[in-house]
Design goal:
This protein is of the alpha/beta class and about 375 residues long. It contains four helices and 22 strands. Helix content is about 10%, strand content about 20%. A hairpin with a 6-residue loop joins strand 2 and strand 3. This is Leucine-rich repeat-containing N-terminal plant-type domain-containing protein.
């Protein structure tokens, strides 16, 4: 499992929002909007700094220590300003050790020019996610991963129609009901990244899940791991033309067979660990020439491994542990010269393991 988590770490980091260095707000640019300045100071004063680690940040920093009355907020850590108006358009407080209740009428919601908001890896003490999140209509990127929010995700989040990236993962028992899901997917039609790991989505029906097909022209990254999804996963999602990463890890009642054709050919990562996906692994998997990580352990796959799989020469991670696969492991395994992780255990394979491991540069 450590290898699996490490393999996904680079992609989790891609979802963090970048902070423009303070040097961009030089003396020739407008000063921070005075109302935004005041609202940020009020926001700062509502939290304590609590030294802790959750394992998701490579480092922690008290960014709001630089937020001082009488100074220009465009020069504060984590703050990005519009170069024309001086309004705050970006706020990156990820890994900032903030601790305390997130007030439903926080002055943060007065920053209506915000385009990027990253509050990942803080501790907001099981606060509900305020309905006023829907006031931030300019948002294109919202990251609340591992931030300690709790309860039902408000329907007003669907007002954020400009969203390109949404990450609500690992936030202490957030729940997404079908009504909010339907509105959110219906209004945010340009999403490129959607990450809802460990959000309770147990009320979402198969027909509503199919609404993800609305993103056929945009979706690159979809992670719905450990969300209590059930029923049949819509096969069309595996055919989204631009999809590069799909993770459905540990949805034990989520069923599907892999498609016999029409895969998303840019797919680089497919993680179905611990789902009820079943049937044979089709020959069509050999069309995924960009596939880098294939994780199918503890599913219900049976039959032979198709010969086409051994032509996926970009694979670095291959895990079939705990299925009902059988047959012999061919010497074609030697084609996968970039492998760093291989697990074929707890299946019904027969014959000898081919003597190919000297061909691998790393194993």
């Amino acid at each position: 499992m450590t290898s699996f988590l490490l393999s996904f770490a680079p992609f989790f980091l891609l979802l963090l929002l970048f902070h423009t260095p303070s040097s961009t707000c030089s003396s020739v640019l407008p000063l921070c909007n005075h109302r935004d300045n005041s609202n940020l100071l009020h926001f700062k004063n509502s939290f304590a700094i609590h030294t802790y680690t959750d394992g998701r940040c490579s480092s922690y920093s008290d960014k709001i220590a630089s937020w001082k009355n009488g100074t220009d907020c465009c020069d504060w850590d984590g703050v990005t300003c519009d170069t024309t108006s001086g309004h705050v358009i970006g706020l990156d407080l990820s890994c900032s050790m903030l601790q305390g209740e997130f007030h439903p009428n926080s002055t943060l919601f007065h920053l209506t020019h915000l385009q990027q908001l990253n509050l990942a890896s803080n501790d907001f003490s099981a606060s509900p996610l305020s309905s006023r999140i829907g006031d931030l209509l300019a948002l294109t990127h919202l990251n609340l991963c591992t931030s300690g929010f709790h309860g039902v995700i408000p329907s007003t989040i669907s007002r954020l129609s400009k969203l390109l990236s949404l990450d609500l993962s690992y936030s202490n028992e957030l729940r997404l009901d079908e009504f909010v899901w339907t509105k959110l997917i219906g209004n945010t039609t340009n999403l490129k990244e959607l990450v809802l790991d460990e959000v309770d989505m147990s009320s979402i029906k198969e027909t509503s899940m199919s609404l993800l097909m609305n993103f056929s022209s945009s979706l690159l990254f979809l992670s719905l791991s450990d969300t209590q999804l059930h029923g049949k996963f819509p096969s069309g999602i595996l055919a989204l033309p631009y999809l590069e990463e799909l993770s459905l890890y540990r949805n034990q009642e989520l069923k599907r067979e892999l498609p016999k054709s029409n895969w998303s050919t840019p797919l680089r990562i497919l993680n179905l660990i611990g789902t009820a996906f079943s049937g044979k692994i089709p020959d069509s998997i050999g069309h995924l020439k960009s596939l880098n990580q294939l994780s199918l352990s503890f599913c219900q796959f049976d039959g032979l491994i198709p010969l086409s799989l051994w032509n996926l020469t970009q694979l670095t991670f291959l895990d079939f542990n705990g299925n009902r696969l059988h047959g012999e492991i061919p010497s074609l395994l030697s084609n996968l010269k970039h492998l760093t992780y291989l697990d074929l255990s707890s299946n019904g394979f027969s014959g000898h393991i081919p003597d190919v491991f000297d061909n691998f540069t790393k194993f």
